[in-house]
Design goal:
By secondary structure, the chain is mainly beta. Helices cover about 5% and strands about 25% of the residues. It has a four-stranded antiparallel β-sheet with strand order 1-2-5-6. Strands 3-4 form a two-stranded antiparallel sheet. Mean pLDDT is about 75; it is low at about 10-25.
Length: about 110
């Protein structure tokens, strides 16, 4: 049996870019949308591919439970490190929401 390979082939950079992140990897499709004067990559994630993971929605500051379909969005000019996971309804209502979300003192930002 051969040893497990923990590093990607090719000695490139350690960070992934948005182009390297395959669209089918997370069980959804993606598109480009314009918001706040810039282009955003928006990926619709199927609930089955989000098993065992929880995320905090920046639109409503609530948790997205494991296995729930949601939207992942990030600015086109940045890499996948800027991804944010949104409820579908929160992403669709992002222009109607205020930026002043009340958080508790020790709550994580995202």
């Amino acid at each position: 049996m051969s040893p497990r390979r923990n590093r990607p082939k090719g000695g490139g950079s350690s960070g992934r870019s948005a182009e390297e992140d395959a669209p089918g990897r997370y069980g959804g499709w993606h598109s480009a949308e314009s918001w706040q004067g810039e282009e955003w990559i928006v990926r619709h994630v199927a609930g089955a591919s989000a098993q065992g993971k929880t995320y905090r929605c920046p639109g409503c500051d609530q948790l997205i439970p494991s296995g729930i379909p949601h939207v992942v969005a990030w600015p086109d000019h940045s890499g996948v490190d800027e991804r944010r996971h949104w409820h579908k309804a929160c992403w669709n209502a992002r222009d109607r929401r205020t930026t002043r979300v009340q958080r508790s003192r020790n709550a994580p930002r995202f």
